Amino acid sequence: MVRAADLLALGTATLGEAWPGARLPGLPLRPLAPGMALAGPAFTVRCRAGDNLALHRALAVARPGEVLVVDYEASLDSGPFGEIMALAAMARGLAGLVIDGAVRDSAQIADLGFPVFARGLDIRGTTKTDRGQLGAVLRFGRASVGPGDMVVADADAVLILPRDEAGAALAAGRARAGREEEMKRRIAAGETTLAILGLMKEA
């Protein structure tokens, strides 16, 4: 079984370069605070913009270690997730939130240390009438994400790994990380990147 911590230790840049099946949503999703990062299996949520009932439903059933991945229709007209919901997510042991939409209470969430990646911020409230969908396969920007796909997010990117490829992606990432460590050793010993990468002719 692939541990989320092992994927997180490699980071999105290494995993994305190492594994051809890695999916990049291509959405402007940024961490709420410096240093935020997350990894875990996706718990997918489809919300109607302006309504957060589906998020409340997700918080009642999502399992420890899962990442809430929320399609909020790219809306920046309301903030469906804030401090209280972050506390509820932490109480359930969730690994974080990735939302194609806005959130609120950014300073409070940052103080809590709950990792959130969002399109933006908006303080306006929401209704609570539309049940939305839980566990659906989402079209998330340029990527698809389904329940159980592995989500890795850090300062560089949000990355999706298909659930049945996570183990191979981890192995490929570790191999790449090993090669990079060797490159660092050689650079410290005085070699140039041109020489290490065999680019002398091109130069």
UniProtKB/TrEMBL annotation:
It comes from Cereibacter sphaeroides (strain ATCC 17023 / DSM 158 / JCM 6121 / CCUG 31486 / LMG 2827 / NBRC 12203 / NCIMB 8253 / ATH 2.4.1.) (Rhodobacter sphaeroides). It comes from the Bacteria. Mg(2+) binds at residue 105. Its cofactor is a divalent metal cation; Mg(2+). SUPFAM superfamilies: RraA-like. Keywords: Lyase, Magnesium, Metal-binding, Methyltransferase, Transferase. This is Putative 4-hydroxy-4-methyl-2-oxoglutarate aldolase. GO terms for biological process: methylation. InterPro entries: RraA/RraA-like, RraA/RraA-like_sf. Substrate binds at residues 82-85, 104. GO terms for molecular function: lyase activity; metal ion binding; methyltransferase activity.
